[in-house]
Each structure stands twice: as structure tokens, then as C-alpha cells.
Amino acid sequence: MVTQRDVARLAGVSVRTVSNVVNNFAYVSEETRAQVQRALEELDYRPNLAARSLNRGRSDLLALVLPLDVPYFTELAAHVVDEAEERGYTVLLDRTEGVAARERQIMMRRDRSALFDGIIFSPLGLTEDELRRWAGNCPAVMLGEIRVEGFDHVAIDDTAAARAATAHLVSLGRTRIAAIGHVERPMGNTAAHRTAGYVQALEEAGLPEIHATVRRYQRQDGREAMERLLDMDEPPDAVFCYNDLLAIGAVRAVLARGLRVPQDVAVVGFDGIEEGRFVTPPLTTVVPDKKKIAELAVTRLLQRVDGDQEPAAELEAPWRLMVDQSTTGAAGAGA
Q1: pLDDT score at 157
Q2: How far apart are CA 283 and CA 331, in angstroms?
Q3: Given this model, what pLDDT does residue 132 score?
Q4: The pTM is what?
Q5: Which of 43, 88, 190, 244 would bridge 276 by S-S if both were Cys, CB 3.0 to 4.6 A apart?
Q6: Which residues contact 141 (CB under 8 A, 6 or more apart)?
Q7: pLDDT tens by residue, 12-36
Q8: Alpha-carbon gap, residue 238 to 224, rounded angstroms
Q9: Neighbours of 27 (CB within 10 A)
Q10: Which CATH superfamily groups domain 61-156+289-319?
Q11: Shortest CA distance to 153 belongs to which of 10, 304, 296?
């Protein structure tokens, strides 16, 4: 095995200088760095990552624990992996599908937490008490649905985004605008903020609220909720859905009744997933900046790994309303 001593001998520098280059420390001149780099390549030097991590007291591993049955999180995960790799970290992915038993198995084992320098996660099934008991086992940043005091959390302004999406429907002259999604849950959560934004827009317009609750955020749930709404004596002429999967299911239900989207029922989604661009008609949707969410989450987590003791923070990423054919009947642009 080629050692740093071998590289130092070929490059004509000290072992310490080789170590500084391998670990990408700044205080090495460009000329010396290039000299060492040529020697590394010529000898095909491969660092002993396990030994390096042991010496630093770190594994250089991050855990990403998400419900990957939701496409939004699948797309977000790709950005998290990219951001972590740029900082020299490897991400190990655990899928929970929002099942409490699976989340408990992953999060509550102290020996498992010790494998990672930090964890980015989005719990859907764990209780607030369970999360508080777990806090401190490992540096952590939360994403998505649940907000719990004491944890850093990265999200968008869901209330403002939902208000804008609903106001868009109001601006089109729709007067019976329903919401498909959870109305309330025991912990503070994303759905509650989206409900608040929906209600604010309707109150400003003097229009009634029409709620259709769902148990999950899948396509079939959106279809079933839309069918219930269409069975009302006065069905809605527009729906705001709490994610794009619900919106895709809602579109399917409207079309199955022989009605038209958006002429009879306009549909707005949330999350900006790629699938929404390929349904007929393409979805108008709130698009969170997933890349920025990943950047904020990884940056904050690594600050915690480095010993940052600042109070937990709510970090906000940008979003935009992308208007498309499910509300206007013609392709549009971000608002």
C-alpha cells in the first residue's frame, strides 16, 4: 500500500505537507499543492478513510431518513446527497414510508445513531414525546411535515404559499374553492400552515371554506376526496390540494365524471414534483426550492456537527407558484 511517506519522498516535501494536501487544508502554496498532487496521482495514492475518520472522531457519514413513497422527498433526497458530497460526506438513506414502527426502529437505537455524524429526517409517525427523548443522541435537522421545539427545521412559508395558490383561484373568478388535505393534527405541522393560508385567502375574498380531509397524501386519497366533493349538492369549481399526488388524483376523479379541468374544476397542487408536468392537464403547483432546502439542511447540520450550540432555528427556503394548464387551460409561467 502506498503511504504518505512514499508520496512525500517522491514530491520532495514533508509528510506533514502531504497530509495537509490530502486533507485539503488551505495553508499550502499552489505550487507545492500541485507538486504533491502530481505525486499522489503518479503513485495512485488511496487514503485510508477509516483511519482518517477514527483520528478525527468522525465517520463522515450522514443519515437521511425520509418517507420515500412521496415523490417530493425522493426529489429532495437527490439534492441532499449532492450537497453533502460537495462537503466530503457520504449519505446513507433510510426509507420509512411514514410508518411509526419503522421510524422508531431507525431513530431510537442509540447504537445506530452513533454510526453517523448527523441525521436529516422527516418523521410522520413518531410522537412529540418520542422525538424529545431522542433529541441529543445525534446532531439532527428536521424537514417536512412536523415541527418540534428544540430541533432545527427547514421549510418554506407554507401559509404564504397556500394563500397565494388559493388567491390565484380566486383571481380566476372561482367562488367555491375546496381544500383537499389534513385540517389538523396533534403536533404543529405543514398541513396546518397550508390550511391557514387557504382560510386567509378565502376570508379576504368573502368565500366559504370547503374541507375534504384525507388519511394519506397519495393519488387514490385525492381521487376519493374529489369524488366526495363532486357528490355535494353544490360541488366546488376549484380545489387546492396539499400536495401534487392529491391533485393528480383529484384531476383523475374530475375527468372520470366527464367534467373538464380547468373549465369545470380548476386544480392547484403543491410540491412541484416532476410527475405533475406530465399529467393531462399539467398541474399549476407551488414549487419549493428543493435545492435551497437541501443546502440549508446540510449546512445547518454540519454546523451542529462542528459544535454549534445556538438555539434551534426555523430556516426558510424560497418558493414560487408555477401556473399551468390545470387552472388556466394554457401553459403559463411562475408567479
Answers
A1: 94
A2: 10
A3: 78
A4: 0.79
A5: 244
A6: 118, 119, 120, 121, 151, 152, 153, 154, 297, 300, 301, 304
A7: 999 888 888 887 666 788 899 899 9
A8: 16
A9: 6
A10: Response regulator (3.40.50.2300)
A11: 296
> Which residues of the chain, if any, have pLDDT below 70?
24-26, 47-58, 107-114, 135-136, 183-188, 330-335
AA letter at 270: F
Instruction: Quickly count: other Cβ atoms within 10 Å of residue 209's Cβ.
Output: 13
Residues constituting the chain: 335
SS (H, E, C) 143-164: ECCECCCCCEEEECCHHHHHHH
Query: Which top CATH class is 158-287?
Result: alpha beta
Domain 4-47: CATH architecture, name and number where available: Orthogonal Bundle (1.10)
Bridge partner list, 274: none
Q: What are 270's strand-pairing partners?
A: 286
Host H or E run for residue 283: none
149: nearest Cα among 313, 319, 322, 335: 313
Give, rounded to a whole angstrom, the gap between the first and last alpha carbons of the chain: 58
The continuous run of DSSP H or E covering 128 comes out as helix 128-134
User: What's the one-letter identity of residue 290?
Assistant: K
Beta strands in 96-253 (DSSP E): 118-121, 140-143, 152-155, 177-180, 210-212, 238-241
Q: What is the 3-state secondary structure (H, E, C) of 253-273?
A: HHHHCCCCCCCCCEEEEECCC
Residues 6+ apart with CB under 8 A from 99: 125
- Domains of the chain, by residue range, sit at 4-47, 61-156+289-319, 158-287
